[in-house]
């Protein structure tokens, strides 16, 4: 799995996932909280199957910057 989620997108995904979990906990909605795990995992792994399916690469400029 090669990186296809950029740094900014990674942070946004983790924050969105935490927000979904928080909203799910506030409204006592377990399915909404469970859905919040998905953006957290894709952000932490920096790989998203949906991005791979459509051919999007958010790490394009980062490969040369960090020596990867």
From TrEMBL:
Pfam families: YgaP-like_TM
Organism the protein comes from: Pontibacter flavimaris
Protein name: Inner membrane protein YgaP-like transmembrane domain-containing protein
Inner membrane protein YgaP-like transmembrane domain location: 1-60
């Amino acid at each position: 799995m090669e990186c296809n989620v950029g740094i900014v997108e990674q942070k946004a995904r983790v924050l969105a996932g935490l927000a979904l979990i928080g909203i799910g906990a506030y409204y006592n909605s377990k399915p909404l909280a469970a859905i919040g795990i998905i953006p957290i995992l894709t952000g932490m792994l920096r790989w998203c199957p949906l991005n791979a399916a459509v051919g999007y690469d958010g790490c394009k400029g980062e490969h040369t910057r960090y020596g990867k």
